Amino acid sequence: MLLNWCCFLAFLLSCLGKFTEGLNALENAGPLSPLKPNVLQDKFASYYVNNTISVKGITIGGWLVTEPYITPSLYRNATLLAKQQNSSGNVSIIDEFTLCKTLGNDASLTLLDNHFKTWITEDDFEQIQADGFNLVRIPIGYWAWKQNTSESLYIDNITYNDPYVSDGLQLKYLNQALDWAQKYELNVWIDLHGVPGSQNGFDNSGERMLYGDLGWLRLNDTKKLTLAVWNKMFQTFLNRGDKSPVVGLEIVNEPLGGKINVSDITDIYYEAFDQFKENQDLSDNTTFVIHDAFQGIGHWNLELNPNYQNVTDYYFNLTRANYSSQDILVDHHHYEVFTDAQLAETQFSRIENIINYGNSIYKELSYHPAVIGEWSGAITDCATWLNGVGVGARYDGSYYNTTLFTTGDKPIGKCTSQNPLSYWTQDYRNRVRQFIEAQLATYSAKTTGWIFWNWKTEDAIEWDYLKLKEAGLFPSPFNNYEYFRTDGSIDEEFSSSLSTQAFPRTATSAFSSATSTSRKSKNFASSNKLKASQMLSIDSMSSIWKMGMCAFVVTIFSFCMLL
Ligand SMILES: *[C@@H]1O[C@H](CO)[C@@H](O)[C@H](O)[C@H]1NC(C)=O
Ligand SMILES: *[C@@H]1O[C@H](CO)[C@@H](O)[C@H](O)[C@H]1NC(C)=O
Ligand SMILES: *[C@@H]1O[C@H](CO)[C@@H](O)[C@H](O)[C@H]1NC(C)=O
Ligand SMILES: *[C@@H]1O[C@H](CO)[C@@H](O)[C@H](O)[C@H]1NC(C)=O
Ligand SMILES: *[C@@H]1O[C@H](CO)[C@@H](O)[C@H](O)[C@H]1NC(C)=O
Ligand SMILES: *[C@@H]1O[C@H](CO)[C@@H](O)[C@H](O)[C@H]1NC(C)=O
Ligand SMILES: *[C@@H]1O[C@H](CO)[C@@H](O)[C@H](O)[C@H]1NC(C)=O
Ligand SMILES: *[C@@H]1O[C@H](CO)[C@@H](O)[C@H](O)[C@H]1NC(C)=O
Ligand SMILES: *[C@@H]1O[C@H](CO)[C@@H](O)[C@H](O)[C@H]1NC(C)=O
Ligand SMILES: *[C@@H]1O[C@H](CO)[C@@H](O)[C@H](O)[C@H]1NC(C)=O
Ligand SMILES: *[C@@H]1O[C@H](CO)[C@@H](O)[C@H](O)[C@H]1NC(C)=O
Ligand SMILES: *[C@@H]1O[C@H](CO)[C@@H](O)[C@H](O)[C@H]1NC(C)=O
After folding, report:
1. Signal sequence span per UniProt (predicted)?
2. Chunked mean pLDDT (size 10), the chain, 563 residues
3. What is the rounded CA–CA span in Å between residue 482 and residue 471?
């Protein structure tokens, strides 16, 4: 019920709100300038000047904040260890919170230290540079600032009870990573991926809470501790001179607007920015990065924007005088595998969605830089534990509490992508490569840049850059497209092959306007060298595409609810 209600609400808000504003065509949007090579001196601030440089980034997820689906063996080991510790205990380790709680300080520290030491090493940074990335996004949890685990003592003498372990361990590895980044001339964006009480209830925030209220900004001291952690982050990572690899600080990953009041999120974004500016020297160019909080495209255009003092004056007393709109960056995440509807998409609409999405983001760039800070190669949700330890996949109907299958509809298909690559059909491989290319081509041409999720995993191939590249499913170099042109436009032959398979006859009842859509597909196929920008002008005329875009937001929203 909650889920349905939330989806409905998200749908309504997305469809009625500012969101539609971002859907309008961008007929005149030409391709952006070509990419420059990466050098450390290319700070974020200069990236954004007329978008001459685009972010080509990779996230090292599942390292300093662990995630079960990225390193299942770590979680299996933890469970075994817990059973050894107490054979009569009922062990349920589903996230880092329960891992630390179940194993206790010493065993958790040993296990995690071993993971931190081995999962990412200098070799990874060397290869990240060699492969052509210019930025590394490094997630870290607030508990990295827990100074004394056994006393639950955080910075600023704040006592906050949680089971996480630290004693400075994660910061030690983060500093090590910054040294490597500097050595290999990689820019770094530090991302606070978990805040006290959890900002989204996903296991990747440290604490999985799929149902009920979230703790962040609601439970005692969660706000106080968050502000203290931010202050410490700003003091530590700003003003480190032009050799510092740190070019961006993302204050909180994916706060779940909808479960957390967006007006509260907005307030605390402003508080954080005030603190940021108080700490930042005039000569420092580090960017203040906010996640869109799952609000529609364009939602943040006027917020934190010095050109709209009528808006910012409401919040600022201290620092409003001195900043440019380039100091702030909005991070959007995009996945298409967290609702039944998205999973049921044809390849045609999947690709079309990406192109339309890129065009909508492009419209934001006159207000602020905007990066697609998370995306993947996934076209199903079949990776083991992607939806959480013990949770199945929507794609094959093994997910509990899913919206569609519980009402009696059939699963979409049989899961295979959780298996080694040798089990994948050629068709599935092609579709993954096409989906990746669509995103690379579109995001490179239409946004401030992109950051792929994720550098590596144990066996979640669609989320694993290294495995995808090795299998020939991720272009190398990044613009070595098979299905797109380097300017981001779609290859003609590819587009016609897609349109013929776009809407199988069996699907007609699900699409009331299937005929007009097919006609559109033919247009798409026959127009010569159709560019992404032109494609949108065709599509924006039809409300079915707007509905499609709304479905996106629902997807992302549901992802929040369910992951
Ligand atoms: C950016 O583009 C605008 C409009 O085209 C131009 O006036 C301005 O000089 C450009 N700035 C830089 C730094 O190239
Ligand atoms: C899990 O335990 C096995 C066997 O002790 C060990 O080889 C492996 O390194 C451990 N993995 C992790 C991630 O802790
Ligand atoms: C072991 O687990 C049992 C059952 O959950 C619990 O009652 C007991 O306190 C645990 N013992 C220890 C030492 O944690
Ligand atoms: C163990 O925990 C699970 C999940 O919390 C629960 O469903 C189950 O009943 C528990 N079993 C026992 C023996 O306590
Ligand atoms: C944490 O506090 C305890 C008790 O005061 C002390 O024995 C221990 O050394 C402290 N640990 C760290 C890492 O400072
Ligand atoms: C923290 O508390 C201790 C003991 O109460 C005190 O000596 C110290 O000055 C406090 N530190 C800060 C930064 O407030
Ligand atoms: C939260 O703070 C309020 C006011 O200080 C207090 O009354 C309440 O008991 C606290 N709740 C918890 C769970 O600590
Ligand atoms: C910040 O950017 C300006 C303009 O590009 C540059 O002159 C300055 O050196 C940069 N500051 C640092 C600390 O890199
Ligand atoms: C969100 O907070 C604002 C300001 O405190 C309040 O007016 C509004 O009713 C809240 N919305 C919800 C859904 O709670
Ligand atoms: C601020 O000004 C802009 C541009 O004039 C306008 O679109 C917006 O509605 C105004 N906002 C407020 C809160 O007054
Ligand atoms: C800014 O200052 C005004 C007047 O002093 C005050 O009413 C307002 O609450 C302050 N705003 C913030 C965000 O601190
Ligand atoms: C399904 O959702 C309900 C609330 O809507 C929740 O109480 C229940 O625990 C969920 N089932 C599982 C297996 O998580």
Report:
1. 1-17
2. 36 31 26 33 48 83 98 98 88 97 97 98 97 96 97 97 97 98 94 98 96 95 98 97 91 96 97 94 92 98 90 77 84 94 91 95 91 97 96 87 53 92 97 98 92 98 98 97 90 83 35 25 27 29 35 44 39
3. 15
Q: Where do we find the tokens 């299996």? A: 76
Q: Regarding the domain delimited by 2-69+110-562, which CATH topology (the fold level of the hierarchy) does it fall under?
A: TIM Barrel (3.20.20)
Query: Could you give the CA distance from residue 137 to residue 149 in angstroms, rounded to a whole number?
Result: 26
Answer yes or no: 334 catalytic: yes
Q: Which atom of ligand 6 is nearest to the CA of 157?
A: 1
Tokens of 14: 């997305």
Check: CB of residue 271 under 8 Å from CB of residue 278.
Answer: no
Q: Left (φ > 0), alpha (ψ -120 to 50) or beta: where does 447 sit? A: beta
SS3 187: strand
102-117: burial string, b at 16+ Cβ within 10 Å, e else: bbeeebbbebbeebbe
Alpha carbons 200 and 382: distance in angstroms, whole number: 22
The DSSP-derived string for 283-347 is: T---EEEEE-TTPPTTTTSSTT-TT-HHHHTTT-SSSTTS--GGGEEEEEE--S-SSHHHHT--H
State the catalytic residue, choosing from 207, 254, 345, 352.
254
**13, 263, 265, 295: which to mutate for ligand 9, most atoms within 8 A of CB?**
263
Sign of dihedral through CA atoms 448, 490, 503, 497? negative
Domain ranges in the chain are: 2-69+110-562
CB of 9 shorter than 6 A to ligand 9: no
Tell which residue, 492, 538, 496, 495, has the closest CA to residue 516.
538
Check if 315 has its Cβ closer than 6 Å to any atom of ligand 11: yes
Rounded-to-integer distance, Cα 80 and Cα 84, Å: 6
368 is catalytic: no
Distance CA 395, CA 547 (A): 22
Provide DSSP, 37-87: PP-TT--HHHHTGGG-S-EEEEE-TTSSS--TTT-HHHHHHHHHHHHHH-T
* Ligand 10 proximal residues by C-beta, below 6 Å: 308, 310-311
What one-character DSSP code corresponds to residue 146? E
d(C-alpha 449, C-alpha 365), whole Å = 11
Task: Specify the ligand 8 atom closest to the Cα of 41.
Answer: 14
88 lines ligand 3 (CB under 6 A): yes
Helix (H, G, I), strand (E, B) or coil at 119: helix
Residue 289 bridge partners (DSSP): 250, 329
